[in-house]
């Protein structure tokens, strides 16, 4: 089992979720308004009324075959809009 973490601008959430749905991922968790420190060395905050500047964090637990299926599409979306993706091993308790 793999865990895929995607962190990107919340404005691109629909595009990323559309890519995941096309690949028929088994499910995912979405956390909106994610914030943190980047290369600029300050914790970024979103603008409360617009959400501009906030990030989304999507977590997917799936098999390697699904990761392979969505890899190029996700890389394309993240390279165009910005964001990061990490794959790690996931072991259920």
UniProtKB/TrEMBL annotation:
Biological processes annotated in GO: regulation of nitrogen utilization
Classification via Pfam families: P-II
InterPro entries xrefs: N-reg_PII (IPR002187), N-reg_PII-like_a/b (IPR011322), N-reg_PII/ATP_PRibTrfase_C (IPR015867)
Signal peptide: none
Molecular function as annotated in GO: enzyme regulator activity
Name by which UniProt lists this protein: Transcriptional regulator
Organism: Prochlorococcus marinus XMU1408
Lineage, opening ranks: Bacteria, Bacillati, Cyanobacteriota, Cyanophyceae, Synechococcales
